[in-house]
């Protein structure tokens, strides 16, 4: 281990403090006895208990999860299909336009995306609820999936598919049993990306959500405007814990995969 | 294989397995295959030979169904192949890039095609093991392709194409990455498989020795065209052009003008005041036009004294000697400046004669040793 110079120690400390002090405060106050967020009155888990009683929050959490799972699945299917067409079908009329249009929503301000979707739903007379949020999230996160998947598709060796067809596969069978397994890491990361985007989204959701369905970010945002309650802190702490667990699991899993691959390669030698 | 009975191409009544009729393939404005007519017969071992980029892979890919035909038609077994996808053709191809499935083990790669055929599940395992044995990869059944060496990958690709025992097998440089010994073994293995199963093979190779060994016929290609399609011995002994003579094996070329043609024999005047060279007349040569005399180095005799009773003899000076163990190649400079290679087996007699650099020597050959070709 190298010894860090005092300069490095200081910058490291400040950097991490800057990043994490707000979260630490939030976590600490979620265990506060008092209702006042800024006054410490002893340790307690009562806010967690109250949170569990709070139907509105639980409902919102459930809606958010449902929306995230469904919309990211839709986005993954559509995004993969779009990537496949754009990478594979060679040059066709308007290809540049199409690929540009796939990427445009990535840079479009969310307010505009949300507003346009809202107008669309009103125009076709669709009641806003879970369905509309799912559609909205599916639409914009599909672009992200298609970017991730098409960059993988671009380096995919097409002769593998040809070999599969040569050995008796139909086009779909070749895709399913050769292409998809090989590009699956990209498809999975596309799904995860879409999932987190959906969990995280406030702007588009607030345009497309209706009275019948609210997502957690909307709920938190609106209740904070009435004053920060320790319940929100508790909820946020839970979310932080879940995210931390997710990140740690993912990194352990990928490290394991790398180790396994190295071992395989050593066997090969 | 090369016995006299098997020559369906000589028989006008024989039905070809594959027929190319005026096939042209364009990539945009570039013509990769230029108006090819070709018949390949059942049970043939057909080799495609030609320089890099001449269209060998393209020809194979059109047979396999991976490339459309721009003009003309391809029939397999009498059936027009236009619009028929690869999975509906009784053809298997071994890809030049191997195209092994990286996510499957060696055994699963081999089973891939079998699982999609009408072979009963219970027999697949046995067939996979048989193929593994064939390419000597039993120990590697569980490995993934990235854990194999180049030659091992090539053998897996070969085994995978063979596994379904197709009617027609296309092999795009199947043995390029193998060492000499394994390559020879595999060549004989291929010929053996061919004899046993009656499969028709079309094979691309850069190795002319390999083509000579395995093929019933060889097609020499250049720039999208077929230059000559013939048996290996005819290609070697009676090339139809300087290009083919030069492409296959070692050859000496002497250019000049055709001074006489009479039936099988022809003469080429090549140097002022020297007697014309006598040789076999090649196709399409005409008296008075320009031509070239082609002769293999091993057909030229080298001696210190002027040989008697031989019409074709020229004098020159030994410029270099390459000792090849069983053979020696002498590079002889003629008066007119051209360099001729003569090859002799290293019997004791020659060695004792002790020809060396700067020696003045006579080169001679019989009237039927070389061929006069149009240029
Ligand atoms: N998809 C393509 N688009 C445009 N040109 C192509 C394409 N595929 C092949 N060609 C061109 O067609 C010609 C023939 O290619 P082909 O792959 O058949 O050569 P080859 O004889 O197999 O060469 P090698 O011995 O190097 O494998 C080449 O000049 C190549 O550049
Ligand atoms: Mg090739």
Automatic annotation (TrEMBL), chain A:
GO cellular component: plasma membrane
Protein name according to UniProt: Ornithine carbamoyltransferase
The family this protein is said to belong to: Belongs to the binding-protein-dependent transport system permease family. CysTW subfamily.
Compartments (UniProt record): Cell membrane
Topology in the lipid bilayer: Multi-pass membrane protein
CDD domains recorded: TM_PBP2 (cd06261)
Residues passing through the membrane, by range: 7-31, 67-88, 100-124, 130-149, 178-199, 232-253
GO biological process, alphabetically ordered: transmembrane transport
Occurrences of domain ABC transmembrane type-1 (ranges): 61-253
UniProtKB/TrEMBL annotation, chain B:
GO biological process: putrescine transport
SUPFAM superfamilies, alphabetized: MOP-like (SSF50331), P-loop containing nucleoside triphosphate hydrolases (SSF52540)
UniProt-recorded Gene Ontology molecular function terms: ABC-type polyamine transporter activity; ATP binding; ATP hydrolysis activity
Keyword Membrane attached: yes
Any one Pfam family match given in the protein's UniProt record, by short name: ABC_tran
Domain ABC transporter: 18-248
Protein name, entry field: Spermidine/putrescine import ATP-binding protein PotA
Gene Ontology CC terms: ATP-binding cassette (ABC) transporter complex
Upper classification of the organism: Bacteria, Pseudomonadati, Pseudomonadota, Alphaproteobacteria, Rhodobacterales
InterPro entries: AAA+_ATPase, ABC_SmlMolc_Importer, ABC_transporter-like_ATP-bd, ABC_transporter-like_CS, Mo/tungstate-bd_C_term_dom, P-loop_NTPase, PotA-like, Transp-assoc_OB_typ2
Family note: Belongs to the ABC transporter superfamily. Spermidine/putrescine importer (TC 3.A.1.11.1) family.
Described function: Part of the ABC transporter complex PotABCD involved in spermidine/putrescine import. Responsible for energy coupling to the transport system.
Alphabetized UniProt keyword annotations: ATP-binding, Cell inner membrane, Cell membrane, Membrane, Nucleotide-binding, Translocase, Transport
NCBIfam families (alphabetical): potA
Subunit (UniProt): The complex is composed of two ATP-binding proteins (PotA), two transmembrane proteins (PotB and PotC) and a solute-binding protein (PotD).
Major enzyme class: translocase
EC number: 7.6.2.11
Catalytic function, reaction form: ATP + H2O + polyamine-[polyamine-binding protein]Side 1 = ADP + phosphate + polyamineSide 2 + [polyamine-binding protein]Side 1
Species, as recorded: Actibacterium pelagium
């Amino acid at each position: 281990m190298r010894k860090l110079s005092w300069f490095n120690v200081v910058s490291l400390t400040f950097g991490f403090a800057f990043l994490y002090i707000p979260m630490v405060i939030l976590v600490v106050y979620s265990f506060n006895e008092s209702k006042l967020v800024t006054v410490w009155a002893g340790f307690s888990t009562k806010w967690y208990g109250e949170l569990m009683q709070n139907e509105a929050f639980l409902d919102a959490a459930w809606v958010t999860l449902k929306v995230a799972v469904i919309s990211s699945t839709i986005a993954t299917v559509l995004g993969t299909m779009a990537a496949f067409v754009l990478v594979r079908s060679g040059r066709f009329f308007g290809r540049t336009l199409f690929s540009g249009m796939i990427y445009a929503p990535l840079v479009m301000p969310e307010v505009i995306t949300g507003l346009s979707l809202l107008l669309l739903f009103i125009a076709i007379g669709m009641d806003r609820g879970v369905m509309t949020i799912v559609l909205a999230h599916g639409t914009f996160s599909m672009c992200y999936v298609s970017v991730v998947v098409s960059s993988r598709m671009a380096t995919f060796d097409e002769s593998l598919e040809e070999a599969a067809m040569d050995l008796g596969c139909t086009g779909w069978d070749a895709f399913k049993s050769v292409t998809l397994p090989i590009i699956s890491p990209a498809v999975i990361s596309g799904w995860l990306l879409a999932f987190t985007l959906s969990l995280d989204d406030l702007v588009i959701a607030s345009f497309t959500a209706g009275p019948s369905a609210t997502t957690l970010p909307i709920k938190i945002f609106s209740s904070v405007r009435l004053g920060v309650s320790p319940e929100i802190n508790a909820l946020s702490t839970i979310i932080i814990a879940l995210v931390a667990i997710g990140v740690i699991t993912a990194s352990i899993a990928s490290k394991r995969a790398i180790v396994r691959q190295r071992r395989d390669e050593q066997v090969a030698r | 294989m090369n016995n006299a009975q098997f020559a369906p191409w000589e028989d006008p009544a024989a039905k070809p397995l594959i027929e190319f009729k005026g096939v042209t393939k364009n990539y945009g404005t570039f013509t990769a295959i230029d108006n090819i007519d070709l018949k390949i017969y059942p049970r043939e071992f057909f080799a495609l030979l030609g320089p890099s980029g001449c269209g060998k892979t393209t020809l194979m890919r059109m047979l396999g169904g991976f490339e459309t035909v721009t003009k003309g038609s391809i029939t397999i077994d009498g059936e027009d192949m236009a619009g028929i996808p690869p999975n509906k053709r009784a053809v298997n191809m071994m890809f030049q890039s191997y195209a092994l499935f990286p996510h499957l083990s060696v055994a699963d790669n081999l089973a891939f095609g079998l699982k999609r055929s009408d072979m009963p599940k219970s027999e697949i395992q046995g067939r996979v093991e048989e193929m593994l044995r064939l390419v000597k990869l039993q120990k590697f059944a569980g490995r993934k392709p990235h854990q194999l060496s180049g030659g091992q990958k090539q053998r897996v690709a070969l085994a995978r194409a063979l596994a379904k025992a197709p009617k027609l097998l296309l092999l795009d440089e199947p043995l390029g990455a193998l060492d000499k010994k394994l390559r020879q073994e595999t060549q004989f293995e291929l010929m053996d498989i061919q004899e046993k199963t009656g499969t028709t093979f079309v094979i691309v190779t850069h190795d002319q020795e390999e083509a000579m060994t395995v093929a019933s016929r060889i097609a020499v290609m250049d720039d999208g065209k077929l230059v000559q399609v013939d048996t290996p011995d005819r290609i070697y002994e009676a090339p139809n052009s300087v290009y083919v003579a030069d492409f296959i094996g070692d050859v000496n070329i002497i250019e000049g003008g055709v001074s006489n043609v009479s039936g099988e024999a022809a003469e080429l005047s090549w140097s002022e005041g020297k007697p014309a060279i006598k040789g076999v007349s090649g196709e399409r040569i005409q008296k008075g036009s320009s031509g070239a005399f082609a002769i293999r180095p091993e057909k030229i005799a080298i001696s210190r004294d002027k040989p008697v009773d031989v019409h074709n003899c020229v004098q020159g000076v030994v410029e270099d000697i390459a000792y090849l163990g069983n053979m020696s190649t002498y590079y002889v400079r003629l008066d007119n400046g051209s360099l001729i290679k003569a090859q002799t087996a290293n019997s004791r007699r020659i060695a004792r004669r002790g020809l060396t650099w700067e020696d003045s020597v006579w080169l001679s050959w019989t009237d039927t040793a070389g061929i006069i070709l149009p240029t």
